[in-house]
Model the fold of this input.
Amino acid sequence: MNNKFILIFFLIFLSFCFIIFYKGLNNSNTYIPKISEEKNIPLFKAKDFNSNIDITSDKVFEKNSYYIVNIWASWCVPCRKEHPLLMELSKTQSVKLIGLNYRDKLKNAKKFINELGNPYSQILIDNDGMLAVEFGAYGVPETFLIDKNKKIIEKFVGPINQEIVEKIKLIIK
Amino acid sequence: MKTIKIFLIIFLFIGLPQLKSNEKNDNLKNKILKNIRCLICQGQSVYDSESDFASSIKLIVDKKIDEESSEDQIYEFLREKYGDWIIYEPKLNKNTYILWLSPLLLFLFGGLIIFKKLYNQK
Done:
């Protein structure tokens, strides 16, 4: 009776281990960011790209307006690819684009903007990548949509595409 | 010569606590960095990685320690930005109950079996 009980328990234990490992092996071991979670925008102080003057997040983001924060760098090839779409979005009146120049050389970044056009109403410098961390980003490009209550409502990892542009347009309509 | 000696003693008295505090902060920083996963590397902690992401996180941890944030506050900050995945040692919550409690339950059950066997032998 006692041995039977131990055997049953052992079998249950083995099945439990099998299920856990089987499920674990199927799970991805790379980071998948949560993109549907609403978060407040971080409070920060950064340097303005054009004037080199310190500016706070309160001055950058005003209430009752939609914002798109785009993290970019001149050395980032996908950023070049998504740039025409950002130019398209910048023509939309109901949203302001804020650029976050990530770990870049000012000279190269200016060349990039002069060459491809400036879709941003303001560009902030993020030389050490700390500002990107405050936004919860882990690479370039990344794009955040911020609503009228200063909340991050959408996060797009990687270059944006036409589908994403349409989605953004639908939200800010 | 005497003046130099006095200066050296004063310097040691002023400098030693500062050195000790720096060492304490460095130990805390290394402990935290070893427990943070580099999200863009395969199987590397932020401590081991030289990626852009890791160096930004190192700066953030440095800044937080300078601001006298506690270890838990730093983990909480990172967890809020990137989720539980960024910390190697997950916190006890409803998703990790099995992970934390199953070794303890198994240990107790094993102990119970051994105890029962020994008791029956008597």
Chain A has six helices and eight strands. Chain A touches chain B at residues 6, 9, 13, 29, 31, 33-34, 39, 103, 128-130, 132-136, 138-139 (CB under 8 Å).
